[in-house]
Amino acid sequence: MIAGLIGRWLAAGELELPLPGSGATAQRWRRLAALAQDDLVAGRLAEAYTDAVAILAELGGPDPKPDQLWGVWAAESRGAMLRARTENGEATLDGVKVWCSGVSLCTHALVTARLDSGERGLFAVELSRTRALPSTWRNPGMAETDTRSVGFDGVPAVAVGAPGEYLTRPGFWHGAIGVSACWLGGAGAVAEPLYAAAADASPDPHTLAHLGAVDAALAAAKALLTSAAAEVDRDPLDVSGTAELLARRARPVVETAVDEAITRTGRALGPAPLCLDADHARRVADLTVYVRQSHAERDLHRLGELAGAAR
């Protein structure tokens, strides 16, 4: 089902979004939120694809073809390492890459790997020669993303950008905000039963109070994303050095909206939607896992450093 939905989005041009900083960043993030509200798993994979397109444009990589679905596999683990070796100008990758989403769906991926110098390089890879390892996923949330480890054994790769540039480019932080736009779409979907309950003939005061809190949180998150998009469009190359601050502010505000949507919808409506509405139960499970791409207090600690330095 997810593969079919993403395929339809690709064929219909639904994933041809304005690039970050192009003057229409708000439109890009609104569209990502809408896709995620439609289906959070498909929206999460669509966000990765659109992020890959933006990275390739920013760093001068190859142009994705219409029949290709790209992922971005940049997570690293102490227990597993992907290494890149270059000989006669050609790169190959060896080792294991963890937390690879869309393993059975993606045709290509942008993959980070360690160079002999210890720096992190970024590489474009055609995935037919990689080896998907058995899944260890145990949570129903986001299970349909098919996220698992992938083995690389001398897999040819094309370097994209200079070593270390994946993390230092302005678009890294623009992409981080794009992820939170998908969280926001997921929060809107989770809150739909609460909005529906409040529209009944005689909703109780507690239901309305919960909805008021959720609606305010969603509105605040939307407003901040709109404001952040305008800042990105004014300074697409991050000359001001504020892109990280923008992202670090936006993500916890959206995360708060997610927490409000999940918690207050459950408190207002009780167990019935979670137990009897399969779509709602899946949305809650998916969003609960997806929002954990936030690093919680670690991110807030860094935000505090940046906010203090900016005064």
Structure description:
- With 311 residues, the chain is of the alpha+beta class.
- It has two domains: 1-60 and 164-311, Up-down Bundle (Butyryl-CoA Dehydrogenase, subunit A, domain 3), CATH 1.20.140; 70-160, Butyryl-CoA Dehydrogenase, subunit A, domain 2, CATH 2.40.110.
- The chain has helices at 2-11, 25-38, 40-59, 165-168, 171-198, 205-234, 243-269, 272-276, 278-290, 297-310; strands spanning 70-73, 82-87, 90-100, 108-114, 120-126, 131-132, 148-159.
- Strands 1, 2, 3, 4, 5, 6 and 7 form a seven-stranded mixed beta sheet that branches.
- A hairpin with a 5-residue loop joins strand 4 and strand 5 (120-126).
- Helix 2 crosses helix 5 (171-198).
- It is globular.
- The chain starts with a helix and ends with a helix.
